[in-house]
Amino acid sequence: MPNRKNKKGKGEGNIRQRTDGTWEARFTAGKNDDGKQIQRSIYGKTRAEVSKKLIEVLNELNTGDYIPSNKLTLAIWLELWLKQYASIILRPSTYISYEGYIYNHINPVMGGILLKDLTSERIQVFYNDKFQSGRTDGKGGLSPKTIRNLHNMLHKALDQACRNNLIAKNIAEHSVLPKRERKEMRVLSRKEQKELILKIGTERLGFAILFDLSTGLRIGELCGLKWQDIDFSKKTFQVRRTLQRLKTSKTEQHESETAKTKVVEGKVKTDKGYREIPIQDKIFTELLVYQERQKQEKEEASDAYWDNDYVFASQLGGAVEPSTMRDMFNRILKLANIEHANFHSLRHSFATRAIESGVPIKAVSDILGHATVQLTMDLYCHSSMDLKRDAVNKIVDLW
Questions:
Q1: Contact (Cβ atoms closer than 8 angstroms) between residue 300 and residue 231
Q2: Confidence bin at 289 (pLDDT 50/70/90)
Q3: Structural domain range at position 118
Q4: What's the mean pLDDT in 105-110?
Q5: Residue 334: per-residue pLDDT
Q6: How many Cβ atoms are within 10 Å of 340's Cβ, its own excluded?
Q7: Contacts (Cβ under 8 Å, ≥6 apart) of 215
Q8: Is residue 204 a contact partner of residue 294, using CB atoms and an 8 Å limit?
Q9: Taking the CB of residue 236, how many other CB atoms lie within 10 A of it?
């Protein structure tokens, strides 16, 4: 039989084992309007677990950070979760995205609801409304991908609330989300690739386009590449970082008068994103030529040159932002009279050409830095129009 007598360890408050075998800690959370003490309970599977939670609550009471359940709204909890739990594990770009979901979408609609009163039905209605007309600019609904990202964030936050015994279960668990839309990938044809390569010489950083077309880098990885990442003896390079312009967090904006955006060197997208990629011999030769041109720029700029070691740097050694790289790519497309394509189409084109050439799918996946081989297969294991045309032309004997 469980021992149901009150037990009090040093500095722990009152802890007891309940009849069902679980443990309960009782503590005083201030006084109500009538001057009577407010008693609260927290629960756990073991005495040690409850003791740890109780110490955390008592610390919060001492510092004034404790919020009783009858005042803990969804907005308050999401802000606490983002700053105290999520911030230590999220990439900067993901953190900014989560801020946007919380302050632009969730809080204005559901933020005032007490966490303990939030229901599955209320969350489902929220998702449905956002899908229909949830854009902040009033131009329709959020995409299925954005809804799923928002849901994943809310699910994580409610999971933590469960672990903290703030709610009994994760009520977002069984939400129904919009079906994912499979967007048609823009892959450059072989003819378009040739036309593109003929025009890259019109741009100072045109070699970056050729380099990306031969390696499949994400644009942030391309902009973040440094000379220290290149092993000239092995003709390989390491993908170690990504470079992007992000909005500054609300915390940063409150603490000081900072710009609304900033350029950030961050971690790559996934653990598989840290990878070593071989450089084709022809591309390596072009890289050496490009390096000599950059050295010449550095000499001409003299003391004005601020060397940040970027492979694709500005004329004074600074970072080249993804937006600048996109603008250059668009100019080359226009000059080559190629139908519009986004920068990511270079990555798609690399993967498609590799698979068409018989490169093993595992090798393609490793070069791209995909989390799984299945992801690579889902994205790229389809026939290009060039291959379909070849296949059709091979069956001439039927006619």
A1: no
A2: very high
A3: 74-163
A4: 95
A5: 97
A6: 9
A7: 277, 279, 283, 350, 367
A8: no
A9: 14
**Position 117 confidence tier, pLDDT thresholds 50, 70, 90:** very high
The pLDDT of 90-103, averaged and rounded, is 90
CATH of the domain at 148: 1.10.150.130
> What sign results for the dihedral spanned by CA atoms 100, 106, 109, 113?
negative
User: In this structure, are residues 318 and 308 in contact, taking their beta carbons and an 8 Å threshold?
Assistant: yes
User: What's the CA gap between 24 and 39, in Å, rounded?
Assistant: 12
Interior CA angle at 176 toward 171 and 178, to 5°? 140
258-271 tens-digit pLDDT: 667 788 888 887 78
pLDDT digits over 202-230, tens only?
999 999 999 999 999 999 999 999 999 99
Bigger pLDDT: 328 or 95?
Answer: 328
**What's the pLDDT at 98?**
94
Whether residues 222 and 335 fall in one domain: yes
Rounded CA gap, 57 and 42, in Å?
A: 9
Instruction: Indicate whether 331 and 239 sit together in one domain.
Output: yes
376 in any annotated domain: yes
- Output the domain CATH number for residue 275: 1.10.443.10
Query: In the predicted model, is pLDDT for residue 5 greater than 60?
Result: no
Q: In terms of C-beta distances under 8 Å and separation of at least 24 residues, what long-range contacts does 270-273 make, across chains too?
A: 270/369, 270/370, 270/371, 271/371, 272/366, 272/369, 272/370, 272/371, 273/221, 273/239, 273/369
Q: Are both 221 and 329 inside the same structural domain?
A: yes
